[in-house]
């Protein structure tokens, strides 16, 4: 099992949600997961909810 750990510092600003999603998409694409895969969509949704 491969483990990947990365971090992004965000400010308490609603505009940061979009930046966090873009950052997550780039990390997901870099790991070989296609953007339209259910896993990628779920991860992006999770990021949006956490920010």
TrEMBL record:
The entry lists its GO molecular-function terms as: ATP binding
The organism of origin for this protein: Streptomyces albus
Q: What UniProt keywords are attached to this protein's entry?
A: ATP-binding, Nucleotide-binding
Supply the name of the protein. ATP-binding protein
């Amino acid at each position: 099992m491969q483990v990947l750990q990365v971090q992004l510092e965000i400010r308490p600003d609603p505009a940061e949600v979009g930046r966090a999603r873009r950052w997550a998409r780039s990390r997901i694409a870099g790991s070989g997961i296609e953007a339209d895969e259910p896993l990628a969509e779920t991860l992006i949704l999770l990021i949006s909810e956490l920010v």
